[in-house]
């Protein structure tokens, strides 16, 4: 009895009410491609991963180097891994802010009306951001190199350390993505993230040896996951060894993803 | 996997749709039945619940009560299927501002599963069809409102969905662009698509829609063809403008004796309006007016407008600007 002309209706039996893993991957990659196009269009959004790592590395080295390690050269092996982790983890905050801004735009209405994987707009954005982390990692090590930091662990270990930091930043970005989804405005995302990020990155062994801290603070710094990442990067870059810290860093990152990825997706689905 | 082809003559079937925002019943029990292959107009003022209704039908919002089916597929439990059958063009263009027109269409084509060179071909084809080829590479920030709407509509048509939602497709467009949009919508329907459009413009519903639902405060207050709606309000009206306003009482008396009805007066323009049940009696009236030396400046017959329909149905007007008397007529006296 069907008098309907459009082709789709002649064969509704081929329509599926679910999204398979392959489509999830394809949609996510397409969304990541969209992220890359956006970066191409507005390169200024890369400032925090280009100028900032260079600036902060120089500033921290020359300000604290003498006081903490006697001179700048001796401070570098301690400080470069610290500033690296601090910069990259901090930059992961941008994920949440940009996601919120993005979701306020009309284009997300269209994403919601399309037969695509619901998680794709989130996962795609987080995937694109790993490129930002990679840029920050490269520039920090490069700045360190120029200043005279030649990691004893060798090139392979440094690359591994970089990948570890990128993975940890990616996992932390799920927290900000969650804030991004539930928050009302981009600036509130930034506010919330700052409150968590500043204590987390500074109350660690990133810039000073943990034993120089008062005992209560040292206790916190020692369990702070950021400290584990910093220690892991130091072990890798300076000695080429994968220590317990690396294991803890990875475990911590996986736990964060295990908690926040489902939370984020659920909050997003509810809104979607 | 869902059961195979569900033959249905109804593209949209909704019963008792309700959406609450806090204590505000934005949509308060809407029933709709839209036949496949038709244009259905949802007419109402701002805040009547039009966009909320569309959002529920397009799976963007979950209904708080009631049910809706798109070609027989439930918007709640079979949302992913419904999304494969619809195209949505929102009130505000839902395209990516940061990308070019081509990039937008390629992005949506890829998301819809086109592979290889197909997305680029599709984008070029649609840009051509919507007259956007020259602007294809320009950033969207420099697009006019009309171009943005056309791009938005183009994006909704990538998968050639059998049902298209257009939420106020011409709001904010200049008359010429509005006319182009109307032509595009007519073309879609000629191609077999079903269109549900919302509008605040009564003439738009009148022009495009096969059937119209008038919606107010989240409820459907009337439904039918636009002719049915008009005739439910009343007959055509005879409009007279007298040269001399002082003749009004005498003219009203003549209308009462010849047509047998009371007339309404708008004194500032010396205008009289009377329901016209029997057109042939108008001759008698004109003869009588001439016999009494009452000069008539203008005579016309007016069909009830959808504005009047809306007023009659809801007790308040649409809030949209209605046809005001043109300035020349006002000053010509």
Architecture blueprint of SSEs:
The complex is a heterodimer of chains A (272) and B (333).
Chain A: H1 7-10, H2 21-41, H3 47-69, H4 72-91, H5 93-103, H6 107-113, H7 120-147, H8 155-182, H9 186-202, H10 215-223, H11 225-239, H12 244-271
Helix pairs in contact in A: 2-7, 3-4, 3-7, 4-7, 4-8, 4-9, 4-11, 5-8, 5-9, 7-8, 8-11, 8-12, 11-12
Chain B: E1 10-21, E2 24-35, E3 39-43, H1 50-57, E4 65-70, E5 73-74, H2 79-85, E6 86-89, H3 101-111, H4 118-129, H5 145-156, E7 163-167, H6 175-190, E8 194-199, H7 202-208, E9 211-216, E10 219-224, H8 226-233, E11 237-242, H9 248-258, E12 264-266, E13 271-275, H10 281-291, E14 296-302, H11 306-314, H12 327-332
Parallel strand pairs in B: 3-8, 3-9, 6-7, 7-8
Antiparallel strand pairs in B: 1-2, 1-4, 4-5, 9-10, 11-13, 11-14, 12-13
Relevant terms:
heterodimer; A: mainly alpha; disordered N terminus; B: about 325 residues; alpha/beta; Alpha-Beta Plaits; 2 domains; 6-stranded mixed β-sheet; 12 helices; elongated; disordered C terminus
């Amino acid at each position: 009895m069907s008098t309907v002309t459009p082709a789709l209706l002649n064969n509704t039996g081929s329509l599926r009410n679910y999204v398979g893993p392959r489509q999830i991957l394809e949609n996510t990659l397409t969304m990541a491609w969209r992220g890359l196009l956006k970066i191409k269009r507005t390169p200024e959004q890369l400032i925090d991963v280009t100028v900032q790592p260079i600036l902060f590395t120089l500033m921290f080295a020359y300000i604290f180097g003498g006081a903490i390690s006697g001179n700048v050269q001796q401070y570098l092996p301690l400080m470069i891994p610290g500033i690296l982790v601090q910069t990259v983890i901090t930059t992961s905050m941008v994920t949440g802010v940009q996601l919120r801004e993005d979701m306020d735009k009309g284009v997300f209405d269209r994403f919601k009306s399309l037969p695509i994987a619901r998680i794709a707009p989130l996962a795609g954005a987080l995937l694109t951001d790993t490129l930002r982390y990679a840029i920050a990692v490269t520039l920090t090590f490069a700045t360190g190199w120029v200043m005279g930091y030649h990691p004893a662990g060798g090139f392979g270990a440094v690359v591994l350390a970089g990948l570890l930091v990128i993975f940890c930043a990616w996992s932390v970005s799920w927290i900000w993505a969650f804030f991004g989804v539930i928050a009302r405005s981009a600036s509130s995302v930034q506010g919330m993230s700052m409150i968590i990020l500043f204590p987390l990155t500074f109350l660690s062994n990133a810039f000073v040896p943990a034993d120089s801290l008062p005992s209560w603070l040292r206790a916190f710094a020692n369990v702070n996951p950021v400290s584990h990442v910093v220690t892991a990067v130091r072990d890798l870059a300076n000695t080429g060894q994968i220590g317990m810290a690396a294991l803890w860093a990875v475990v911590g990152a996986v736990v964060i993803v295990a908690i926040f990825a489902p939370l984020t997706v659920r909050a997003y689905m509810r809104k979607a | 996997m869902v059961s195979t082809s569900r033959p249905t003559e109804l593209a949209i079937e909704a019963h008792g749709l309700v959406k609450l925002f806090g204590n505000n019943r934005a949509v308060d029990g809407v029933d709709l039945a839209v036949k496949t292959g038709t244009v259905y107009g949802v007419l109402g003022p701002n805040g009547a619940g039009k966009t909320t209704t569309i959002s529920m039908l397009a799976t963007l919002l979950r209904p708080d009560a009631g049910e809706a089916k798109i070609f027989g597929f439930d918007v709640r439990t079979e949302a992913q299927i419904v999304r494969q059958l619809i195209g949505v063009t929102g009130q505000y263009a839902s395209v990516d501002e940061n990308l070019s027109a081509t990039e937008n269409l390629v992005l949506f084509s890829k998301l819809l599963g086109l592979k290889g060179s197909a997305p680029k071909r599709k984008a070029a084809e649609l840009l051509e069809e919507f007259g956007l080829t020259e602007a294809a590479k320009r950033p969207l920030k420099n697009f006019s409102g009309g171009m943005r709407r056309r791009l938005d509509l183009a994006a909704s048509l990538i998968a050639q969905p059998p049902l298209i939602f257009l939420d106020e497709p011409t709001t904010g467009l200049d008359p010429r662009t509005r006319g182009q949009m109307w032509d595009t919508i007519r073309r879609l329907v000629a191609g077999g698509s079903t269109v549900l459009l919302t509008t605040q413009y009564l003439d738009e519903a009148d022009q495009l829609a096969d059937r119209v639902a008038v919606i107010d405060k989240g409820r459907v207050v009337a439904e039918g063809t636009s002719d049915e709606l008009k005739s439910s309000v009343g007959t055509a009206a005879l409009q007279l403008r007298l040269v001399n306003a002082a003749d009004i009482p005498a003219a009203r008396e003549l209308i009462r004796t010849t047509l047998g009805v009371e007339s309404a007066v708008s004194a500032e323009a010396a205008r009289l309006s009377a329901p016209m049940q029997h057109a042939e009696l108008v001759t008698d009236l004109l003869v009588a007016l001439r016999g009494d030396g009452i000069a008539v400046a203008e005579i016309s017959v007016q069909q009830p407008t959808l504005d009047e329909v809306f007023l009659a149905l809801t007790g308040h007007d649409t809030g949209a600007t209605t046809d005001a008397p043109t300035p020349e007529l006002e000053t010509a006296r």
